[in-house]
Structure formats: structure tokens, C-alpha cells
């Protein structure tokens, strides 16, 4: 079996999986729980620690802090922008460009960006959130994507279980957890089960 040398000197199988995990959450976090930004940062770190690649909407707030965590851990961070260009991303949408290895400029505004971003991911994590996060959640739910919800982070994340129960469409492929490490582990287990069933 072929192996590659990692930066820390260890060897990794070429066949090992790097799951693409999207972090969805509020760009404006005034309604989130006090610890939400630090939790987002820890989720970003934990995605990398557990062999993942971070995907976000290349925006402020929760997604941005998860990107900071991912980069601090030495991982890969990919952003999907609603803008059509870097100039539009900065000047029209007022969005950041740091902490991203790659930004995909979709040109499809927020709704179109949300669709492309969630579909590019193997799983989606919800932290806090507002209406846009709910939109990303419903896209992932309809696409039967594995979803992880960080309960206790405030906003949309803390009402999703109630929405799912009241939606009468089944439980979906959702795991709920209040701990970043446990949440990523449960979500990756769900993604792995999906891959094995293909």
C-alpha cells in the first residue's frame, strides 16, 4: 500500500479519506450563545484533527471563526463566495479573504452559493445560525446529507430538532451534540456509513 510523508514526519495511506465538512452558521453573531465563536473555532480545529477539509460560505461570524481554527491546526479551508469575483467579494459583500486556501467565486448570490456549498460537502455542521443557516440546513436535509448540529450554540441550531419533528419528513441523517470533538466524530461516522453503502 502506497504511503505519503506528512509534515510531522508520519506516514499516511494514499487511500485514506479526507472528508469535506461544511460549517454553516450565523455571519452576525449577536444572538448566539456567548461561547459560540470559540466553539466554532474548536469545530474548525477538530475537523482538521479528524482528517477533514473545511468548507464554509467565505463569510464573517461562525464560518470565519471555524476557518481560523482550521488554519491554526494546519488544515485546508475552502470558501464558497456569493460574489462573482474577488473585487465583488470584498467591495460589494464586504467579506474576508484571509484564512482561506481557496475561494470559489460562485456569482450566485447567497441562495445559489448555499446550494453549491452544501452539495460540494460530504457533511454539514450547523452552529448557531439565522435564516441563511436554516436555508443551508434544509438544502442538506432535502439532499439527504449527513448533518451535525452543535446544540447549545444558540439561534437556528437550538431549534432544528423541533423543526425536524414538526416537519413530518422523518428524522433525516442528523446527529446532535454539544461538544465539538464528539460532534465531528459522530458526523464522520455517519459519512463513513454513507460511503460504505454506495
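Q: What amino acid sequence fits the structure above?
A:
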Amino acid at each position: 500500500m502506497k504511503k505519503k510523508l506528512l509534515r510531522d514526519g508520519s506516514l499516511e495511506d494514499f487511500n485514506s479519506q479526507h472528508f469535506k465538512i461544511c460549517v454553516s452558521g450565523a455571519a452576525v453573531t449577536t444572538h448566539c450563545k456567548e461561547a459560540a465563536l470559540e466553539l466554532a473555532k474548536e469545530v474548525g480545529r477538530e475537523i482538521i484533527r479528524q482528517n477533514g477539509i473545511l468548507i464554509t460560505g467565505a463569510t464573517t461570524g461562525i464560518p470565519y471563526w471555524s476557518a481560523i481554527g482550521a488554519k491554526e491546526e494546519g488544515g485546508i479551508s475552502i470558501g464558497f463566495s456569493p460574489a462573482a469575483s474577488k473585487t465583488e467579494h470584498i467591495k460589494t459583500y464586504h467579506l474576508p479573504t484571509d484564512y482561506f486556501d481557496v475561494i470559489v467565486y460562485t456569482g450566485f448570490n447567497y441562495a445559489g452559493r448555499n446550494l453549491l456549498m452544501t452539495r460540494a460537502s460530504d457533511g454539514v455542521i450547523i452552529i448557531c445560525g439565522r435564516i441563511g443557516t436554516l436555508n443551508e440546513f434544509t438544502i442538506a436535509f432535502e439532499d439527504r446529507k449527513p448533518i451535525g448540529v452543535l446544540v447549545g450554540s444558540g439561534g437556528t441550531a437550538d431549534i432544528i430538532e423541533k423543526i425536524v419533528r414538526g416537519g413530518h419528513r422523518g428524522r433525516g441523517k442528523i446527529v446532535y451534540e454539544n461538544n465539538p470533538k464528539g460532534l465531528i466524530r459522530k458526523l464522520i461516522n455517519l459519512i463513513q456509513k454513507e460511503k460504505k453503502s454506495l
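Q: And what stands out in the fold?
A: DSSP finds seven helices and nine strands in the chain.
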